[in-house]
Amino acid sequence: MRRKDREITDKNEIMDIIDRSKVIRIAFTGEEYPYVLPFNFGYEEKDGRMYFYIHTATEGKKNRLLDENNKVAFELDNCRDYVEGSITSLYESVAGCGVMTEIADMSEKLSALGLILKQYGEKTYKPDSSCASRTRVYRLEAKEVSGKANRGK
Predict the structure, then answer these.
(1) Is the pLDDT score of 5 beyond 80?
(2) 88 Cβ partners below 8 Å, 6+ apart?
(3) What's the pLDDT score for residue 89?
(4) Least confident of 34-38, 68-72, 131-135
(5) Angle in degrees, CA 28, 29, 34, rounded to 5
(6) What percentage of the chain carries pLDDT values higher than 70?
(7) pLDDT at 8 (0 to 100)
(8) What band does 37 get if pLDDT is binned at 50, 70 and 90?
(9) CA angle at residue 139 from 110 to 24, to 5 degrees?
(10) d(Cα 54, Cα 130) in Å, to the nearest integer?
């Protein structure tokens, strides 16, 4: 990282940024250009590893690209403010890369959908097998994660 003064190495601080994020952007490969899409997401840490979960339609370009190459990059951020009189903003971000796999087991799919709902504070809706059968659910196992922030002075 070029700006070491903005690097975030504290795991708790990185987790806090993720907790407050509302969108994960995932970059897929497999064609001439990378393909980046925003997703609702959920996440968990298990056995010292970070996992993100997304859901998608059962068909589409991203699914085809994942079938061809399941290595992806991701980014989450909380941009707060433009700094007047400059060409920068105040922000916090987490980025990394990992491997995405589709979840086939229904109980795992429901658990992942529950984590997605938890990220957005949903307390009443509970996904069921009819909902889960109409969607593809993916687990992104993060292989590298880094954090960066410009919080001002």
Answers:
(1) no
(2) 82, 150
(3) 80
(4) 131-135
(5) 80
(6) 95
(7) 86
(8) very high
(9) 105
(10) 17
Calpha distance 41→55 (Å, rounded)? 8
Domains and CATH numbers, the chain: 4-150 (2.30.110.10)
Report the amino acid identity of residue 135.
T
> How far apart (Å, rounded) are the C-alpha atoms in residues 14 and 17?
5
Could you tell me the two tokens for 151?
């919080």
Whether residue 90 contacts residue 151, with contact meaning beta carbons closer than 8 Å, is answered with yes
With a CB cutoff of 8 Å and minimum separation 6, the contacts of 127 are 110, 113, 114, 117
Instruction: Identify the CA nearest to 3 among candidates 85, 91, 98.
Output: 91
